[in-house]
Amino acid sequence: MKHGFVKVAAAVPFVRVADCIYNIERIEAMVLEAESKGVEIITFPELCITGYTCGDLFLQPFLIEQAQQALLRLAERTARASVLIIVGMPILIESQLFNAAVALQSGVILGAIPKTYLPNYREFQEARWFAPARDLQLATAHIGGFDVPIGHNVLFRSGEVAIGIEICEDMWTPYTPGTRLALYGAQIIFNLSASNELAGKNTYLRSLICGLSSQNLCAYVYSSAGYGESTTDAVFAGKAFIAEVGKILEETPRFVHEERMIISDIDVSRIDYDRMSTNSFNESVTDHTERGKLMEIPFELRSLECSHDVDRHIEQNPFFPQNGTEGERAEEMFDIQTCALAQRLQFVGARHAVIGISGGLDSTLALLVAVAAFDFLGISRQGIIAVTMPGLGTSQRTKSNALQLMEHLGVTSRTIDITEACLQHFAAIGHDPQVQDVVYENTQARERTQILMDLANKHNALVIGTGDLSELALGWCTFNGDHMSMYSVNAGVPKTAIQIIVTHLAQTQRFGEKLSEVLQAVVDTPISPELKPTDSAGDIEQKTEDLVGPYRIHDFFLYNFLGYGYTPSKIFYLARVAFRDEYSPETIRHWLKVFYRRFFSQQYKRNCLPDGPKVSRVSLSPRGDWRMPSDVSSRAWLEEIDRLPID
Fold it and tell me: What are the distances in angstroms from CA 338 to CA 152, 341, 369, 522, 604?
C-alpha cells in the first residue's frame, strides 16, 4: 500500500450471452488497462464470463465447460498482470451448479466464493439453475486440473489488508455475507452483481451501498451487468459504485452504451482507525464471530510506483466537503450551536448573556448564535449584553464592524475602552509598554475577560465564549483570558467553517439585508487578535496567519490528524495532493511542523476548557473526544516530519 491506500476498480465490460471467449477477451482488455493505471484489485459483474441471462443454457454441460476453459485462458493471458482479478461464472461441483465469484492473480486461480442467497421471485429464477452456498459439501472446486478453495466464509488477505466477496442478492438481505466478512476483518467488500434497472431502484441501491459501508465501517466495490445482456425480460445498464464508510467515491453513469471502469483508492488505514476507535464495532465482532469458521487465502498487493497518485478527490476543507451541500452544512452547524446555547440558557434560567465583540469572525458568529438562541426561547435580544472593548491594538475597521453588528441586531451595546486599565496594570507590575511582548498582548486579553466576567456577575448572565476549534488546536489563545468563558459556542467550529457559516448567513440574509453587508465586511477583514498597534495608516498590521500559518492548511492537518488518526507522512502526502496548486512542499512541511509543535505544547490550555457543543467529527473537549496529558513529547512526530522528502 501507498500511505494506507489500496487502488481498486469496478469494471463493466460488454458481454455476449453464452460467448465465453468473447467475454474473457473484453475482461482481459480491461484488466490490462487497469494494470497500466496502477489498480491493485478489480472486480467484474456477476456471471460475466457466460453472461447473466443465459437462462436454461446454464443446465447445459457444454456451456459450463466453455466457462471453465475461458477462465483458464483468462488466467493464462493475464499471468503477467499483478492485479487481483475477480470474475463471475458458474462452477459445477459434483452434481450441483453454483453461481460463483472466482479470484485469480498472476495466472493463478486463488479461490472461489459461491452465492449465498439466490433470488427466486418476480423476474429472478436463480434457484432453477443454481444451488445456494449452504448446500456446498466440499471445500475445493476442481477447475481445469486444479483444486481451488471454495466457500462462503473466505477472506483474501495480503498483509494487513483483507477483502471479502459477495454476489448481488447477498447484499439485499438483513444480515449480509459482507457484514459477516467485515466482522471477520475484511476492510473492502466486493459485490459482483446483475441488478436490472427499474424506476427508482438506483436511488435505493445507492443508499443501500452507502448504508452498508457505513454500518460495517468498510469500503464497498460494486459492479453490475451491462450492455450485451439479453433484454427479453429485463434491462441491465451497467451500474458500478465505489463507496467508503458511507460516502460514494465514484459511480458510473447509467444508460451509456460503452464499457466502463471506475477507479478509486480505498483508505484502509482510515477504516482500521474507525474500527479501532469504535467499541461497538468490536463488541459486534465478539458477538458474531467464531474461531475456526473462516478460511483465509493469501494474495499479493502490487507495489505501486510513485507515479501513481491517489485516485480520489482530497478535500481541501474536510470540515466542509465541496459536494453541493455547503449551505445545508452551514445551516446545520449554526443550528447545532444555537440549540446548544438555548438549552444551556434555559437550564440555568439565564435571561442575559454577555459577549465580547471584537468585530472579527469568531465574536460575530457567537453573537449571531446568541441572537438566534434568544429568539428561539422568546427572550428579548436586549438581554444580550454585547461589549466592544477597544484597546492598544484595535483598528477603526473592526470597531466599526462591532458597533454596526450590535446596532442592527438590536442587542444591548456597551463600549468600554481598556487602554487606561492596561497602562495602569503595566505600571503596577513594572512593565514598559514600549516592549510589545506577550505581557503587552495578554494583559489586554485578560482585562477584557475580567470585564466580561464581572458584567456577567452583575447581570446574572453567562459569558459566551468566542474562541474557535482552530485556535484551541494551535493554542492561539490567552490562558485565563479569551480562553475562558461560561459556555463556549465556537469550541467545536474551526476557523475555516466560521468563515463559511458567516458568509452563508450573509448571502441568505437570515438576519436582514443591512446586517448582511456588515457580515460580509467582517469576513473580508484580516484575521487578527489586534493586540499590537495598527500601522501609520490605521490598518491592521498584526495578522494571525502570518504568524501561525494559513488556517486553511491547519484545519486540513487538524481534521486528518484527529478525525482519521493519520501519520504526519500521510497528512503531508495528502496535503501535497490537495494544495498542489497553492503551496509548495517546503511550505506544507514547514506549517505541518508548526502544527504538531504547537498542538502538543498547548495541551494544558485544552485540559481546562469550558463546556461547548461538539459540532463536527473533530472535537478537543477534555471531557469527550480528546484526552491527553499536558506533558506529552512531540519528538517522534517532529522527527518524522523532518524526514519527509520535498522533491
Answer: 50, 5, 5, 20, 28
Domain ranges (residues) in the chain: 5-298, 326-642
- At 306 the pLDDT is 47
Sequence letter at residue 277: S
d(CA 50, CA 71): 10
Query: What's the pLDDT score for residue 197?
Result: 93
Instruction: Catalytic residue, from 20, 48, 54, 168: name it.
Output: 168
Residue 303's pLDDT is 62
Q: What does CATH list as the number for 5-298?
A: 3.60.110.10
CA distance 217 to 277: 11
pTM score, two decimals?
0.92
**Range 326-642: architecture per CATH:** 3-Layer(aba) Sandwich (3.40)
Q: Find the catalytic residue in 28, 35, 46, 166.
A: 46
Task: Enumerate the β-bridge partners of residue 296.
Answer: 155
Percent of the chain with pLDDT over 90: 90
Residue with cell 459556555: 487
DSSP run (H or E) holding 297 = strand 295-298
544 pLDDT band (50/70/90 cuts)?
A: confident
Provide mean pLDDT across the span 230-243: 94
Tell me the pLDDT tens digit for each residue of 93-129. 989 999 999 999 999 999 999 999 999 999 999 999 9
**Which of the 8 DSSP states describes residue 541?**
-
- The answer to which of 143-152, 162-171, 417-426 has the lowest mean pLDDT is 143-152
**CB-based burial, 429-456: b 16+ in 10 Å, e otherwise:** eebeeeeeeeebbbbbbbbbbebbeebb
Q: Which listed residue (2, 7, 115, 239) is catalytic?
A: 115
Annotated active-site residue 168? The verdict is: yes
What is the identity of the amino acid at 403? L
DSSP 71-126: HHHHHHHTTT--SEEEEEEEEEETTEEEEEEEEEETTEEEEEEE-S----STT--G
d(CA 172, CA 434): 73
Q: CB neighbours (10 Å) of residue 646?
A: 12
Residue 198 has pLDDT above 70, yes or no: yes
